[in-house]
Amino acid sequence: MDLSNAWWRKSSRSGASGGNCVEVADKLTGVVGVRDSTDPAGPVLTFGPAAWRAFVAQIAARP
Q: pLDDT tens digits, the chain, 63 residues: what are they?
């Protein structure tokens, strides 16, 4: 999958200290990309939009 034109944004849940940095590309057609911002050329996890929404909902529901 070609994600070279993806617009990546740092997750609001990532730490400010530069450690746990997750970036998300969610303005793609039919897929959401997730990567480690400290390794932008590294591997990317991809999720379908429904799976991503379910994941985010589960995280948001945690205390």
A: 888 889 999 877 666 666 668 899 988 899 999 999 889 899 999 999 999 999 989 988 988
State how far the Cα of 26 lies from the Cα of 36, in Å rounded to an integer: 15
User: What is the domain partition of the chain in residue ranges?
Assistant: 9-61
Distances, alpha carbon 45 to alpha carbons 2, 3, 16, 33, 59, in Å: 13, 11, 22, 6, 17
Query: Residue 36 corresponds to which amino acid?
Result: D
Q: Does the reported pTM lie above 0.90?
A: no
Distance, in Å, from the CA atom of 35 to the CA atom of 47, rounded to the nearest integer, reads: 12
CA atoms within 13 A on the CB side of 1: 14
CA angle centred on 18, ends 36 and 63, rounded to 5°: 80
